[in-house]
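Regression test case RT-17, inverse folding.

Input:
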């Protein structure tokens, strides 16, 4: 005897459909998604609007409550990685390995500088959203 499946809740169906829409919207139009998922275009447009609003709330929350911390953490990790690369370079004996490590150190420095160059934008955004700029 086969086990009976309980029917999905309507909210579960919506959540699952929106997850599919979130993936498909990267590559397809809303019309194509509606056809693929056998839904109306209005439903897909509503799902896309919901996903955009959810993403905006997530970004607003990140900016207000944690972006500066994440930014500082990323800078600290880049510094730690650079220190590790320098230690590896100093202990390396193979010229080819040293050359690769120098390239990695250069890439690390460029990443650090790029992240630093974005700081004014981050701070301006933080101020605009009403948060304190503590870097």
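Golden output:
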């Amino acid at each position: 005897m086969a086990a009976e499946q309980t029917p999905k809740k309507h909210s579960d169906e919506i959540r699952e459909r929106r997850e599919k829409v979130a993936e498909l919207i990267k590559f397809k139009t809303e019309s194509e998604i509606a056809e693929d998922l056998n839904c109306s275009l209005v439903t897909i447009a509503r799902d896309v609007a919901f996903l955009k609003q959810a993403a905006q709330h997530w970004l607003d929350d990140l900016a207000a409550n944690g972006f500066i911390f994440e930014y500082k953490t990323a800078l600290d990790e880049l510094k730690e990685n650079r220190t590790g690369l320098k230690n590896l370079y100093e202990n390396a004996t193979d010229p080819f390995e040293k050359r690769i490590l120098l390239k990695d150190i250069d890439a690390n420095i460029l990443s650090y500088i790029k992240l630093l160059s974005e700081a004014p934008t981050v701070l301006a955004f933080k101020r605009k959203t009403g948060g304190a700029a503590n870097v």
